[in-house]
Write a structure and sequence with these properties.
This protein has two helices and no strands. With 91 residues, it is mostly helical. The longest helix is centred in the middle third of the chain and has 77 residues. The protein is rod-shaped.
Length: 91
């Protein structure tokens, strides 16, 4: 009787051991998938940061260009253009 119980326990132990190995394999696969997803997420964040930096550079350039354009316009409004100043010299 004790030997039958022992045999039953050994079978149950082997069954549970196989289940545990199967779960460990699934865990390893899940970890690999997680690392892939994390890599892709980090890439996406990097692209977003790069995009934000590029957008900021474009905005700065446009603001500088508008300011320069406004300065030129103000100067031209302050100094009316005469026929002589437009051509620079007369023949």
């Amino acid at each position: 009787m004790a030997s039958a119980k022992c045999s039953k326990i050994e079978k149950l132990y082997k069954k549970k051991k196989k289940e545990i190995e199967k779960l460990r394999t699934q865990l390893d696969e899940s970890e690999k998938d997680f690392q892939k997803i994390k890599k892709l997420y980090d890439k996406q964040l990097n692209w977003e940061k790069t995009g934000d930096l590029l957008q900021q550079e474009v905005d700065d350039y446009l603001a500088k260009h508008r300011k320069h354009k406004d300065e030129i316009q103000e100067e031209s409004e302050q100094e009316p253009v005469t026929e002589e100043s437009r051509w620079g010299y007369e023949e």
